[in-house]
Amino acid sequence: MAEPLLLSTWHFGQIANRAGWPHLLAPDGSALDAVEQACRAVEEDPRVTSVGYRGLPDLKGQVSLDAAIMLSPNRCGAVAYVRRFVEVISIARRVMEQTPHVLLVGEGAEIFAQSQGFRPRSPRADERTAELALCEHHGAEDREAIHARDPRHPHVKDGETSPEAHSGLAADGGRDADSSHDTIGVIARDCRGTLAAGCSTSGLAGKMPGRVGDSPIVGHGLYVDPGVGAAVATGHGELMMAICGSFLAVEGMRRGLSPQEAIAEVLRRIAECIPDRGDRQAAFIALDKAGKWAAGAMRPGFQVAVRTPAGEQLVIPDLVFSDGSD
Ligand code: SD4
User: What is the CB < 6 Å shell around ligand 1?
Assistant: First the structure.
């Protein structure tokens, strides 16, 4: 019997873990169910403003959602640029289970979702979040000013984490210091030792309409090789997409690196390949087949919600490539 484990990105990973954990413990529980339900809980939670129902808007103020779920290279499904449904992780699972394809996008994904009985429901950014998001996109100075006069957003500088985030969930669901993005990424291991991973996101705030990031793309936002391990990513998708970040992390573990060494190699590769990356974040969680896990990020601020039989913890990873002062 393997020890069950659930790892989720950011402070709202606690919402995910609470919803996913019972599915790992049930007698017929599975890592796949746990990942789906974990992501789904965040998609439905109106306090989380970068995933699902209250996703972040694009440049035109519209929300589009991306998600993927994966058990193995041969069992994965994803949807991207979905604008009329909220539960995209479950639609991604149906793509995996009910179609011969891996990725459906836009109108095709929505027609498929409807055919599978999902109820059309458009995600909607709240106005305040939309305004903040556009400022995130257009300039840090505007953002600072808007954060300062918005009581829902405790004033935190880039790279710092709010006290609310440390203590659990802030009133608005707990946002990272950089509130222009955030994906729920989940890795689960069940009692049989089966690994599964999933991610769900509205992508980057103020993105160009039609832009799709790493999250729904196998190898970029997530990767699972049952014989090796699993990885999920969050942050600016363009960084992960430059180097197939999640795939690279799993390949590192295949070559014998520990999860921490594998993530360190991925972060180094991003730094080498994208010297002009500015202050963009890229963060990873990796889990090997034996149950050893690690997390790391280009910059401070990343957090991982960890659920084991011993309880729930919000962990700030030691592995941070840059201290944020560059
Ligand atoms: C994207 N990686 O679309 C996602 C966004 C994200 O933390 O994870 N932000 O680029």
Answer: 181-183, 201, 203-204, 213-215, 234-237
